[in-house]
Structures are given as structure tokens and as C-alpha cells.
Structure prediction request, 180 residues.
Amino acid sequence: MTPPDEPPSNPYDPNWPKPEQPQSQPHDQPPTGATPYGQQPPAQPYGQQPPPGQTPYQPYGQTQPYGQAPYGAPSYGGASAAPPHPSATTSMVLGICALAGMFFCVVPILLAPFAWFMGGRAVKEIDAQPGRYSGREQAQAGRIMGIIGTVLLVLGLLGIFFLILSIGLASESAYNDPTY
Prediction:
């Protein structure tokens, strides 16, 4: 009987092609590419980078200095190590305090215009010098919360004004009423 031209499509068929098994190594030798315990791997020539996907050898017990990424690894937070803008976090905190504090007490809503002003100024300064400062997202969040808080503040002040005006008009009309 002649074998078929194509391999059978059923994996349960006894004629199904079997994958090649890797050669096993003796147990007393390390796997290929590894170094035995206590031995140094072959050194890379000076200036030569390790192959992609492979990290350079670091002996057991030696660590990188604090805050420093291992050789070849991307640094935490990306390539930018710019400090955050000093007003970015402040504007965000003022915006959060203004909006959250508004529900407990009326006074914190007065912080909203300051958050809007500081956040807007910080965003402009960060955009003017992109590599100098980071924290644009925080400044933008503070600015937006400041805008929302300021709108709520203005609406609240208008509501209080119209309430006082309506009470004044009602009392004046009652004062001028001849039935009293």
C-alpha cells in the first residue's frame, strides 16, 4: 500500500505525523544556554548589546541601585523623567476639595476659581515647555474641576440672589397691601 500524498487530517489516525521530540541531556549537565552554579557566563565584548529578548547576566545577590532600572529595561514611567509642575497637584487637590466639600459645607466651593486659575496656568506652562515639566493630566483635572465648581458657585450665588429678591418683593407687596 502506498502512503497518501498529504498527511492525514485526523490527529487520532495512527499515520498522523508526530512532532519531533527534543534531545534529552544528561542530568549532570545544565540545559543548553545556561551556566552551572557558581560559574560566570562568557562575557560580552565591550560595547556589544545582548541579543533581543535576552537580559545581561547579573550574579546572584547583586542588585541594581534603588530607583535604577536594570540594563536594557525601560525605566518606570517611560523615557520622561521630568518633575511634575508645582501647581499641577495643587490645582487638582483644590478642585477635589471644592467639589467634594460643597456637599458637606458651602465654604469649600469658594476654592473652585483658584483651582481653575492655577490649573489653567499650569497647563499653559507645561505646554509651552513640553520637556521641562510633567503632570499635565493633574493640572487639566484641576482646571476642569475648577470650571465645574465655579459654574456651580455662580449658579448658587444667582439662586441665592433671586431667592433674596423674591423674598424682598413678597415682603414689599405684603407691606403695601391695604388689607393689613
The helical segments are 86-101, 112-128, 136-175. Residues 86-175 form one domain.
